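Moderator note: this is an archived Q&A kept for reference. The question asked for a predicted structure of one protein chain; the sequence and the answer are reproduced below.
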Amino acid sequence: MIGFETSVTLMMIEEDTKRMVFSLRFLFIPLRIITRNSSNEVNMLYNDKPIVLRMLITSLLV
């Protein structure tokens, strides 16, 4: 019974994660549009940030 409860909890966490990723992607849609419109400004924005953050943003955009 404990194993069943654990798997249900994991499923709930997975659903929350999916929802979070979806909302993050939704937030990044405007950034994609901006990237298409003015890549120079976005490049400047990227260069101000650490490489780790740049990689994170890039992975979310894919």
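Archived answer notes: Residues 2-61 form one domain.
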